[in-house]
Specification:
209 residues; mainly alpha; 9 helices
């Protein structure tokens, strides 16, 4: 019974990492990418997201609760300390390790990002281009956000590979190898989007070079 529950929890953990959390990540990076078109474009995109009907319901049940479960159960997996060396080779074992490290980092990063944006907004602050530009004007915060964005894009991309395996979609070595290339492309593409947005907040001309 306990093994079945653990199996189902791992399946749910994997599924939530792709839907809805992965979809939210792509949407969030897309909104941030509007910063490459200037402050006015970013503010318009951010305002549109904030004005969505049932926004609080969507944030709680589609974003925060899935992330909370994914994070808590992810920590449980991390501290279980089970290795996958017998199932996969050297490269995949490194990906497995980095997945754990980025997961822990993201727990800290997301909590801090929510505090700086959503929580501050509840106190009356405007979540806009100027807020992000002010946050990223600190070299420490810039590095913190760069690592956070890269951790998020890697964690999602590598987690997508694991999802395909654990859900029986890629079962052969060839299909898993193709999935490795595909998820690597996804990681690079999302990272370019995220880095372009960050650069736009600190130097609009640099992002458009």
């Amino acid at each position: 019974m306990a093994e079945n529950r653990d199996f189902m929890n791992r399946r749910l953990h994997s599924l939530l990492g792709v839907v809805p959390i992965g979809i939210f990540l792509i949407q969030h990076l897309t909104v941030n990418f509007f910063a490459t078109r200037g402050a006015e474009a970013f503010n318009a995109a951010a305002h549109f997201m904030e004005s969505l009907p049932y926004r609080i319901f969507l944030e709680i049940f589609i974003i925060f609760l899935p992330i909370l479960f994914h994070a808590i159960y992810g920590l449980y997996i991390v501290f279980q300390g089970k290795s996958n060396t017998t199932r996969f080779g050297f490269f995949r074992n490194w990906m497995f390790l980095i997945q754990r490290i980025t997961g822990v980092y993201l727990l800290i990063f997301i909590a801090w990002h929510v505090w700086q944006t959503r929580v501050q907004a509840s106190f009356g602050a405007d979540v806009n281009y100027d807020m992000m530009a002010d946050i990223l004007s600190s070299p420490f915060m810039l590095v913190f956000y760069i690592i956070g964005v890269l951790s998020a894009t890697f964690h999602f991309s590598n987690g997508l590979w694991s999802f395909l395996v654990s859900w029986g979609i890629t079962v052969t070595p060839r299909s898993q190898r193709i999935a490795t290339y595909a998820t690597a492309v996804i990681f690079v593409a999302l990272s370019v989007v995220g880095m372009s947005a960050l650069l736009s907040f600190i130097n609009p001309d640099l992002a458009n070079m």
